[in-house]
Amino acid sequence: MKSDMKADLSASTSSGSKAHAQAQRVGGLSEQEPISLASDEQPDQPTPILYKDFVIGQEMGDCTLTYDETFVQGWQQIFGQTALTQTQAASVSLILMMRAFLSIVSPRPPGNIHARQTLSFSSLPVLGDQLTVSAACLSKTMRKERRYVELGVKALNQQGIPVFAGVLTLIWAA
Amino acid sequence: MTVPHHLHEVSLEISQKTIQAYAGLTNDHNPIHLNAEFASKTQMGGVIAHGTMSVCLIFRSLEETFPDLDFAEMNIDIKFTSPVRIGDVVRAGGEADPNQPGRFDVWVRGQDDGVRIAGTATVAACAWHALKGTSVAP
């Protein structure tokens, strides 16, 4: 996989600037103030969840979030207004997944890195839907002195209908 | 119906404000995204944008190309191969996999054409055939 990517990169370098000029620019923030969302970020705590604390197979909890207009407005501030409703729904799903993960697995050491993401949609949420996202530790491995943690996430809407499932692969900082 | 081989490319300029706004949306205030001094001391060597922010561009690229494509039952599998930095103008696009209908090799590249994200997006066979106006073989 790694060598494929290198080959892909080198093969496309020559046409890069031309291709870039043809891409449709979207969004971009102006001087307007970003939409303010409630934060459940906790103040620094002395005992963050460390790599050693993850237990493979352990359910870590769940978090219920509402897909509301605030997220749409916040997304549009970054990516621009669009009639592309599926893009918005898929993007907000991703955002809710991140919010849920960060709420469930907290506090964390600073400096974690998102290395890989899989996500399978079963349906797309609509405004007003409440998504309950659960997270579980699927694996943890040391590779090249990096601490890899895989977390499985699943989201159900308020009717218990699956919305998405995925795996976050993270390089844990400590 | 003829299906495009290349996805429509969309781009986004990454600024500190963009990163701050996305941090607010996701509630991801990891200092590797927001604190230059902290980030400079990590293996990333400086502030990096949230990886999932660029994934939103991939969704947009797919829908811009196929407005009638049903995202339900779509799968993505992507790796964040290189960091996206402040000042980058990233663009998302992709190519159809000729060997697997409904599957696309998707990517996000920087202004230097370097790959930042690479992976696949796959739509359900029924959705793909509906888009093409064909039926799925039983």
Features:
heterodimer, A: 174 residues, alpha+beta, five-stranded antiparallel β-sheet, 6 strands, 28% helix, 32% strand, disordered N terminus, B: 138 residues, 5 strands, 31% helix, elongated
Q: What order do the helices and strands come in, and which of them pair?
A:
The complex is a heterodimer of chains A (174) and B (138).
Chain A: H1 2-12, H2 16-22, E1 24-25, E2 59-66, H3 69-79, H4 85-104, E3 113-121, E4 130-143, E5 146-156, E6 162-172
Antiparallel strand pairs in A: 2-4, 3-6, 4-5, 5-6
Chain B: E1 10-13, H1 16-26, H2 31-34, H3 36-40, H4 51-65, E2 75-80, E3 89-96, E4 103-109, E5 115-122, H5 125-132
Antiparallel strand pairs in B: 1-3, 2-5, 3-4, 4-5
Structural summary, described in words:
The complex is a heterodimer of chains A (174) and B (138). Chain A is α+β, with helices and mostly antiparallel strands and 174 residues long. Chain A has helices at 2-12, 16-22, 69-79, 85-104, and strands at residues 24-25, 59-66, 113-121, 130-143, 146-156, 162-172. In chain A, helix 3 packs across helix 4. By secondary structure, chain B is of the alpha+beta class. In chain B, 31% of the residues lie in helices and 24% in strands. Chain B has five helices and five strands, in the order βααααββββα. Chain B has helices at 16-26, 31-34, 36-40, 51-65, 125-132, and strands at residues 10-13, 75-80, 89-96, 103-109, 115-122. In chain B, strands 1-3-4-5-2 form a five-stranded antiparallel beta sheet, with helices on one face. The model of chain B has no long low-confidence stretch (mean pLDDT 92). Classes of the chains: A alpha+beta (174), B alpha+beta (138). The interface between A and B is large, with 62 and 63 residues. Strand 1 (24-25) of chain A pairs parallel with strand 1 of chain B, so a sheet runs across the interface.
